[in-house]
């Protein structure tokens, strides 16, 4: 697939301060996994339909589920919105825990 979504290094630099600390094993490539999560949600795909370039669908889902349950994505959205100086880019949905509702907001904030 040539139309895959990839976060840039500049975008990743803005997101890294919000990542939880890794305990024990090194974390799987954050760029690949987060790009995959955003791609899945932006396109309304099932996890099992994730392009293989993003890695195993189970890894994408597990990271999304764990970080959603722990409020990581909500903190990212609030933090990025607080940094933004353009009021047109700040669109925080009511349910920050629902990745489907936040998918479109990611690329505008980062």
Task: Provide a concise account of the structure shown.
This protein is an all-alpha fold and 110 residues long.
Describe this structure in words.
This protein has 110 residues and is mainly α. The chain has one domain (26-109). It has 5 helices and no strands. The protein has helices at residues 9-15, 30-43, 57-69, 72-83, 99-109. Helix 2 (30-43) crosses helix 5 (99-109). It is globular, with a radius of gyration of 13 Å. The protein starts with 8 loop residues before the first helix and ends with a helix. Residues 7-77 form the Insertion element IS402-like domain.
Features:
52% helix; mainly alpha
Radius of gyration: 13 Å
Number of domains: 1
Shape: globular
User: How does the helix and strand content classify structurally?
Assistant: mainly alpha
Proportion of beta-strand residues: under 5%
Mean pLDDT metric: 80
Low-confidence segments, ≥5 residues, pLDDT <50?
A: 92-102
Number of DSSP helical runs: 5
The level of helicity is 40-55%
Q: How many angstroms separate the termini? A: 23 Å
Order of helices and strands: HHHHH
Largest sheet: none
Strands, count: 0
Protein name: Insertion element IS402-like domain-containing protein
Pfam families: DUF4096
Organism: Puniceibacterium antarcticum
Domain Insertion element IS402-like: 7-77
């Amino acid at each position: 697939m040539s139309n895959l979504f990839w976060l840039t290094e500049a975008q990743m630099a803005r997101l890294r301060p919000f990542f939880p600390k890794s305990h024990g094993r090194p974390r799987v490539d954050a760029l690949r996994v987060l790009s995959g999560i955003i791609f899945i949600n932006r396109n309304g795909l099932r996890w099992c339909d994730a392009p293989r370039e993003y890695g195993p669908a189970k890894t994408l889902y597990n990271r999304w589920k764990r970080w959603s349950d722990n409020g990581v994505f909500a903190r990212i959205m609030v933090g990025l919105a607080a940094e933004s100086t353009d009021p047109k880019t700040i669109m925080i949905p009511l349910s920050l825990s629902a990745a489907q509702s936040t998918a479109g907001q990611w690329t505008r904030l980062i």
